[in-house]
Amino acid sequence: MSESENSFVSHLIEMRNRLLRAVLAVVIIFIALFPWAQDIYALLAQPMLAALPKGGQMIATEVTTPFFVPIKVTMMAAFLLAMPWVFYQAWAFVAPGLYQHERRIGVPLVIASVILFLLGMSFAYFLVFPIVFGFIVGVAPAGVAVMTDIGKYLDFVMTLFMAFGITFEVPVAVVLLVKMGMVSIAKLREIRPYVIVGAFVVGAIFTPPDVISQFMLAVPLWILYELGIIVASMITKPKPKDEADYTPMSESEMDKEFDRIEAGETESSEADANEADQEEPDPNHTK
After folding, report:
1. Can you give the pLDDT at residue 138?
2. Rounded-to-integer distance, Cα 232 and Cα 225, Å
3. From residue 181, how far is each of 176, 222, 256 by CA, in Å?
């Protein structure tokens, strides 16, 4: 087996070990939380239960739903608690292949990614859910009892958790794009109007059809975009003045430069030939 093949196999083994450690951490935390699965689901369902009329309750329309839904919620909680360890395993795998300056910026970005994602979920749980569920219950026609299926409720809140968690990652994405040289800060400021429109489009897609919840997703997305621009401008070194003022030569200037180089090479060749003729001894010369 060649050296490159050995290196590839060792990387696969390393990746397998890191994945096993991450999965093992999630499983251990899940087993520890399993006795409180019902309580964890009750905590997740609290915003909806608080919005229901007095005596309102949630229902299960499938036979296995009362068992599997709390299990899924507990698994989600276990993953969130293990997220720092999972991200550490991912970082430990890719860090040896990075340069020193990439490692310096990588650690803060990984930590910021975890914190911002959790902040996004917390924002959805404590601020968005009460308003959304209050609106849904409030617009129910008279005589209609709102009794949400617990499986459908879990799917709904997971969608909002992912939407707000990813939205709060916008500053990290902006900083990465700038540091990788894929876009400039000036360009980010230039496309600001399009980002604002896109934020409200995203809010309309991932939130219920009420204006308040759409604003509660779109406005943070816009603010976090501006925050990403500010952070990127603070950590990005400005280009040197000579590099910033550099403009590429036009086609005519390049043709002139090529002609000058060719003329210089021709003159140099002729001078070398003349010098060689002068140094060549005269065969008719005798001492």
Report:
1. 82
2. 11
3. 9, 22, 32
